[in-house]
Amino acid sequence: MTFKASDSLAEQIAHYLAERIIRGEMKACERIQEQKVTQALNVSRGSVREALLILERRHLVVILPRRGAQVSELTPHKVQSLYALVMELYILLARAVADGWRDDSDLAPFLAIQQRLMESQRNEDIDAFVEHSFDVMRLAFPFADNPYLQETVENLLPAISRTYHLALERRKGEMAQFLEIFAQLLQAIVERDHGRARELLLGYGEHNCQLVLATLAER
């Protein structure tokens, strides 16, 4: 693969490596050799190092002294810690939307995402379904108007995506349940019912966490 030079070259490299990690093509604890990546992608070593730092910030890579970069390990404790934090961040976003929407036009993009999720379910396209579910979070960012919250969520989404792909076969049968929860969440937001939104998101997070843990236990 050859990339065109641009000010986002490191991001492009990071995205390429992240996709391989998320989809399990690069395994936990596998070393990432800078020279091999440099040669394979025809890019500078400096750009690769910058990309690895991006991936470290996104919790897909760990960089160890004198040992270099390797794919981060997924353990039950890390999965539980990740979901515990992410669900609280999602709750903050849901609260922001519930408090911030003023008319139907504010909620229209969420309804459009709901339609795309339904279409992905009909097509049994789990990859598109997962990506659209993340789009829901991004639609909520303007309501929160909190750059720190947005940056934190964006940096955690690749790690969440990795867990989703790990349990992908299990999640294929979960699309209908997610759609039902999403419909209930939208209703809670319309009613500005913070308690109900929190309850739904915590239940959803715990369920997904258990799916991932079950998959890890079988490996």
Description:
The protein is mainly α and 219 residues long. It folds into two domains: 9-71, Arc Repressor Mutant, subunit A (Orthogonal Bundle); 76-218, Four Helix Bundle (Hemerythrin (Met), subunit A), CATH 1.20.120.530. Helix content is 75%, strand content 5%. It has ten helices and three strands. The chain has helices at residues 9-22, 34-41, 45-57, 76-100, 104-122, 126-144, 147-166, 168-172, 175-190, 194-218, and strands at 31-32, 61-64, 68-71. Strands 1-3-2 form a three-stranded antiparallel β-sheet. A hairpin with a 3-residue loop joins strand 2 and strand 3. Helix 4 (76-100) crosses helix 7 (147-166), helix 4 runs parallel beside helix 9 (175-190) and helix 5 runs antiparallel to helix 9 (175-190). The two termini are 32 Å apart. The model has no long low-confidence stretch (mean pLDDT 92).
The number of domains is: 2
Helix content: over 70%
What structural class do the secondary elements suggest? mainly alpha
- Annotation, overall tally of beta strands: 3
Briefly say what this structure is.
By secondary structure, this protein is mainly alpha-helical. The protein has helices at residues 9-22, 34-41, 45-57, 76-100, 104-122, 126-144, 147-166, 168-172, 175-190, 194-218; strands at residues 31-32, 61-64, 68-71.
